[in-house]
Amino acid sequence: MSKNRDINSNTNSVQDVVEQRKTRITTIVEIALFAALSMALDYFIPSIGGLKISFKMLPVIILALRRGLLPGVLGGLLWGVLQILLGEATVLGAVQVIVEYILAFSAVGLAGLFRAAVQKTLYTEGARSKTLLYGSVATFIGSLARYVFHFIAGFWFWSEYAPEGMSPVVYSIVVNGKDFLVETACTIVIFVLLAPLFDRILRVKK
């Protein structure tokens, strides 16, 4: 009997290791995929009256809600690195690049703080409204965290573009605040429209 128990225990241990490796590999693939999707959306952003109608953060937010905080942050980081490597970044210096592209884009992954709450609602019947609520709050937090860094960069590195007589801090609040509100609203709207697909794009098998 003890031998059978040992064999079963060893078999379960091997299966657990295999499952953990599969999960790690899948997570790595998803980090690369969702970062690339966010980068791709950067090429299809129409501007209307100077406002960017954009939901390019959404793939990284979905990644964070699927896999959690660390994968979300890494996905945002990779997205920021792609911005630099593909020539989409405006480079003034090393510190500015770190603030505006490494830290800012990584911060989107903070949406992963709501991963457990969102996943719980996906496995609870009749909890779709809670999924929408938690997902929308997660989007707001991830976007706010990103734009905090853009705000800092705005008055630190771009103060010379402030109109005469306007404080660089106020200038950065106006410019980045406008983009924050529009992009956050657009991302939440698209997130809500994707509700019928939540079981496919958000839920992770236990």
Summarize the model shown:
The protein has 206 residues and is mainly α.
Could you give the topology of this structure?
Layout: H1 2-41, E1 47-48, E2 51-52, H2 58-67, H3 69-85, H4 94-107, H5 115-122, H6 128-157, H7 168-193, H8 198-201
Antiparallel strand pairs: 1-2
Helix pairs in contact: 1-2, 1-3, 2-3, 2-5, 3-4, 4-6, 5-6, 6-7
List the defining traits of the structure above.
about 210 residues; mainly alpha
Taken in chain order, the helices and strands follow as: HEEHHHHHHH
Shape verdict: globular
Give the helix proportion (percent range): over 70%
Uncertain regions spanning at least 5 consecutive residues: none
Structural class: mainly alpha
Task: Tell me the strand order in the biggest sheet.
Answer: 1-2
Distance between the termini: 31 Å
Task: Report the sheet-strand fraction.
Answer: under 5%
Number of strands: 2
Largest sheet: 2 strands, antiparallel
Cα radius of gyration in angstroms: 20 Å
What's the overall average pLDDT, rounded? 89
Number of helices: 8
Explain this structure.
The chain is 72% helix and 2% strand. It is globular and about 65 Å long. The protein is mainly alpha-helical and 206 residues long. It has eight helices and two strands. The mean pLDDT is 89. It starts with a helix and ends in a 5-residue tail after the last helix. A two-stranded antiparallel sheet has the order 1-2. The longest helix is centred in the first third of the chain and has 40 residues, at 2-41.
